[in-house]
User: Fold these one by one.
Assistant:
Number 1:
Amino acid sequence: MMTPQTEDQVVEAISDASGPLRVRGCGTRGVVSAGADLSTRALSGITLYEPGALTLVVRAGTPLAEVETALADEGQRLAFEPTDHRRLLGTSGTPTIGGVVAANVSGPRRISAGACRDHLLGVRFVDGAGRVVKNGGRVMKNVTGYDLVKLMAGSFGTLGVLTEVSLKVLPKPERVATLSTQRGTVEDAVEALSQGLGSPFDVTGAAAWPEAGGWRMALRVEGFADSVAYRAGRLSDGLGLAPIDDPWADLRDVVALADCAAVVRVSVRPGHAAQVLAAVDAEVVQLDWGGGLIWLGGPDGAALLRAAQAACARLGGHASGVKGDFGEVPRRQPEAPPIAAITQGLRAKFDPRGILNPGAMG
């Protein structure tokens, strides 16, 4: 495994590569790709943190836990609530901030705070031709040039190897409350989640899962203590909810599906969640983002993914294989021809030799 210590060594490793490179941090997210391993784990350390400006600049290989600890010491956090995939995927190692950005990993709070890419201020990376590229800045109002910042988030290392990222951070809330009740059907559960999200009470989590012949749904509110108490009370009165213990770490990390042989992730309009579930044969299900994110688990990865992609093609959505053997079924929802042409054009521009994580987006 190549573990460059500096950005210049990343340039050298890519420039000298004679074949594909499997770009990774510490390998916790199970990126599917062939080639020689190129790890950014040695590119570690916080290079700038200005709590008053809500700004953090950090090298890509820095452990996520180190970042979160530094922020917690100042009463701040990464508002997009990044998922830790280790239990779900059965991987080891330490999640890195570069891996979070490269996969655009965003947890339950995405519905209110936005995704990882929405908090990304700037990036430095080395593209497939060995060129160092810098885009963005350290403040949100920097919008000059091409928006490579958002392009890199979710590119899974196929356009370049991240060496440094700049992020906006936010204060931690004074209080968190989770409210829940049971509904008889998934349609009823999604409707209740939608009512919570459509309310003026600033819901920051909206999830549901099967329980005892029905569907358990949960809503989260955060903020100053008096505000949370008021908003939680109004939601309880309106939707018949009661407080429960905080389930969000397990929901964020999709722990309920950890023992499933195959896991499929579906992104769809919340109103279509019931139709997706009716079209697949899943043993374990979890809904997040008000029903817009569906996690499916079962024994047959190929059958599960094929059915999910067919439903998404009909309804408008995206299904991808996260864990398991999917046979000949593409791990990601096939793109429409115009989008596929743009994707191929971008890869040809930034990785003309096609050596960075080939197959990771396929």
Number 2:
Amino acid sequence: MAVNNISIEEFLEKAAQLPVLDVRAPKEYQVGHIPQAHSFPIFDDDQRAVIGTAYKQQGHDPAVLIGLDVFGPKMADFVREAEKLAQNKELLVHCWRGGMRSGAMAWLLGFSGFKVHLLQGGYKAYRHLMHEQFQQQRPMLILGGLTGSGKTDLLPHLQQLGQQVVDLEKLASHKGSSFGSIDMPAQPSTEHFENLLGTELIQLNTQQPLWLEDEDITIGKVVLPKPLHDQMQQAPTIVLEVPKQLRVQKLAEEYCRTDKTLLEAAILRIKKRLGGLATKEALEAIAADDMEKMVEIALTYYDKCYTYELAKKQRMLILPLESINPEENAQRVLQFAQQQNLL
């Protein structure tokens, strides 16, 4: 039997080449998991609940026996499934705390001829490592600007220019406004968003600046880690100042391809803040395919909100731009940052 207990750091290093089996229940996996991991549950959600209740009410030994009754008949299937995932018969296994579930699976697969690397401390150790990434002090540069300034579009171009970039909205599957979920996949849980974010941060150089887009502490239903958001609030913010008409055109072009019912729902979500008359006018503009008018109405609200939030910034640097060409603007932003001695 070849079972090798390893630390979370070594586990993640090996995960780049080897399959990872997460043997927790499907619900646990769904809430959050190591991004590379396959769901490989030793018990389903109901079985886990029954065993957990038995453990609380009857104690360790009766719960183990119930677990073995469930585990025993499935052992051959587990080995067959593992063979499909790990053709060279080497893999990584973890559960919640590195306890009985991963121990049982590691024993079974080790006994069946696999080389198994077992995560010490389980998924809990991984979560601890992710939280350490958010506490890490690192130089940051924040891209700000009113809605429609093209902040998100600049990020990949900054990356092509050799900068360290994390696209928070891409990880959160949301663009941050009432319209933010349109044309985006379903959002992850906050826990899984943290896992995705931590995975990106752990690969970066903490001595070089990290570019992030200015965000509220919530992006849709996802909540940013407070230590990271606090650092973002303290960091220098380069505010892209793009003429309103260009912003309106950019957003109108995006929304003219969008299902009208989604746009109507987005307007209705901010109805209280827009007021009855503006809401009515925005809905009429959507019905008439006048996306520029709808965008202008929505921007009156969003511009006011963002201007209020900007006033709380520690250090703001305004960069006027005359176009919304992301490639050109990324170069302008980089030159500006260099001139301001931010890099």
Number 3:
Amino acid sequence: MLRILFALLLTAVLAACSRGPDGDALRQDVEAHLARAVPEGILSLQSFARRGSQPDISAGSDETRRIVYFDARLKLERDFDFGAWDGPGLAGLVSTLGTGPRGIAGVSNGGNKVGDIISAHGTAVYTLQDGQWVMQVSGAYRPAEAPAYASNTPRGAAAILDAMRKVIDAVPHEGTQAQLAVIEEELAAAYTTIRGRLVRINDGYSIAAGPEHGQYLLFAKALSDDRHTRTVPLVTRGGEENLRLLRAGKVSLALAQGDVALEAYAGTGAFAAAGAYASLQAIGSLYPEPVHVLVRADSRLGSVAALAGKRVVIGRPGAASRITALRVLRAHGLDEGDIVAVDMAIGEALVALRNREVDAVIQVIGVPANSVRDALAQVPLRLLPLSEKAVALLTASQAGYFPYSIPAESYSTQKQPVRTVATAALLLADGDLSESEVAALTRFVYEKGQDFVARGSAQGVQVSAASARLGLTVPLHIGAVRALDAMGQQQDSSGVKPQ
């Protein structure tokens, strides 16, 4: 009888062990990781529940790994802006919780307030080592202000039309050619603007975004989830192609890096043949896009300069990231001929890096990049820092770049900040959109309190009216200026300034 009881007890213990760590151990590990990823005193764990586990099928034949699922609710203990460009933010939070953007809710662009609740469906990967489960992955120029509308402007379409009729009738039938020309020009302009806006409201504003699974496309899709203004994301090869589509009038809006937008505006570099794009204007900056130089964790490569003679993915032609990658190499004394340049999109590039078919991947992308996080689930990767000299050279010689540090814990294997440069992701328009239309779009994009993260874009939390002018390399549309100034005044009057 004792043998039977002992066998049953042993079976129960082994079964429990095979399911990974228990709830208490899991919670302790998650809290320890949170303490490193988020400043002390910002969040408290209000509730935590283990939600089962499953074997990690990507584990090697000589190791035992399990993916453990959990739900967590965290409370803000003081005001905090997870979207701040220059501090620890959402990247460390989602990596610590092992969740995707759609798996976390409650993070607001423009800052969270004390008492707010953030909920997450998280995952953690554990390896069995010596009988113990060990957590591996937890997962400047200011345009002149436009005059305000007169206070006696009539309200409602019928009243406005009636008032316009009175103005026209007040002009003598034999009015001067100049007077009649003014009336005709203004009426024609109003007719064209109204027709254009009605069409765009019905058909939606097309946004040239980026490749499948890229951060641009994820943000454009998150923006399109809002029902107030219809936007239509388009899959493209990247920022360079986006700018060409915008110039050709094939899209209403485009996403592009600030450095490449400047080339298009000035008609230099890849856009020299087309000439200056003088009508290119910004609706605003969205979020910083730092340069990632990725190698396998077991690689002996320790610097960008050491990439000489190596197989390096620099991106596909048509992708703005490729232009930046070549500049980063030149800043380290390397020309394109000094490496074995490989043309790949980020998804296939990371697969090639995992399979040792390439030695490094250079990509300009928002933090945390979903593609990088997904790759880390398969093989450990490491970020190479840019040299101090290269950072100084790039930021001094190339408009649109600024020093940047990828915060520690942005990725599960990254324990220290990584020195690099960044450029701003810009939302761009052509001169075809009217001032009032751009103002409405600006309010739509930068409205405070939106949860872009819950809609699929981790970078969306960094989108705010307060940072909309950071890193701009092309003129800001006057409609955007008006809207952002008004939004700034509203925020100032609220008295809420997240720290």
Number 4:
Amino acid sequence: MTRMLLRWAAAAAGLLIVAQVVPGVRLDGVTAAVIAAAAFGVINATLGNIIKFFAWPARILTLGLASLVINAVMFWLTTAVVPGFRVDGFVPAFLGALLLSVLTGIAGWMIGDGRDSSKKAS
């Protein structure tokens, strides 16, 4: 539970960074960032995975680049359900989703998955 909250906080912090770095991505404060992080996670885990499943031929043909586009669309779609979170077009959505993925990936690596690698398998 603690790791999940840390990852959620890291995603919200990542969104605040994205809003500062990517022109065309705007957040109206920390509350909007926290809500947007949760909404993006839910949208990406549900609708995003369904779309990625059905788009597997395009993902194979583009060597995975279609996944970046799908992720950008999910990022953009999040603005429809979160007041105070705005993205002004596809390019800011693409760059914002890409940067957020990098930031949350780094944070996830730092937080870890809860497994102790120093223990030996018995």
